[in-house]
Design brief:
- By secondary structure, this protein is an alpha/beta fold.
- The protein is 48% helix and 12% strand.
- The protein contains eight helices and four strands, in the order βααβαββααααα.
- Strands 1-2-4-3 form a four-stranded mixed sheet, sandwiched between helices.
- The protein is globular, with a radius of gyration of 15 Å.
- The N and C termini lie close together (10 Å).
């Protein structure tokens, strides 16, 4: 389920939730991630609040991953929160569309939900993300962009890709997701 909440209308209108849902399901299957994934597409302010609450970092970020507790993992793999404002800036920096950038962020978040963590592994997540990016026909991944040498990076730099939070989404965020599900008649 993809929920667009508190994102600037000019940014949100560039996305097609049905196309993102198809991508989410395809990427989840390729990764082998079982269980539903809910995605909140929001603004920098919301991501800043979530980043501060769950990671202790008082700054906006592009994507946060919230794995479900293991008791729910078979039915619900977890939640992702993505800042469309940051995604739009990164898309412009890397000269691709907002939809492509959002898919890159979804892929990155899904890998975190599957248990991978580029901050503590020896490059395994980066290699897998690069392989999946090519299979899914996406531009350069977050890790590739973050790890590029200064001469390979565009003149405008982006914030480092965010990582996984072990805590679930706050009630306010899950309430927004659940409310949207009820409006659409989903379970």
């Amino acid at each position: 389920m993809i929920t667009i909440d508190m994102a600037p209308p000019s940014v949100a209108k560039c996305l097609q939730p049905s196309a993102l849902t198809r991508f989410l399901n395809r990427a989840r299957a390729i990764i082998g991630l079982r269980g539903q994934v809910d995605i909140l597409l929001a603004n920098d302010h919301t991501l800043r609040q979530l980043n501060k609450t769950f990671r202790g970092k008082n700054k906006p970020t592009d994507v946060l991953s919230f794995p479900a507790p293991s008791a729910f993992a078979g039915k619900h793999a977890g939640d992702l929160a993505i800042s469309l404002e940051t995604a739009a800036r990164q898309a412009k920096t890397y000269n691709h569309t907002l939809a492509e950038e959002t898919k890159i962020l979804i892929l990155h978040g899904l890998l975190h939900l599957s248990g991978e963590d580029h901050e503590i592994d020896n490059g395994e997540m980066a290699a897998r993300e690069a392989t999946l990016r090519r299979e899914l026909r996406l531009p350069a991944t977050l890790i590739e962009r973050t790890n590029a040498s200064p001469s390979e990076k565009p003149s405008s730099t982006t914030k480092k890709a965010s990582t996984t939070s072990k805590k679930p989404l706050p009630r306010r965020v899950t309430s927004a997701i659940q409310s949207n599900k009820k409006k659409r008649g989903s379970k």
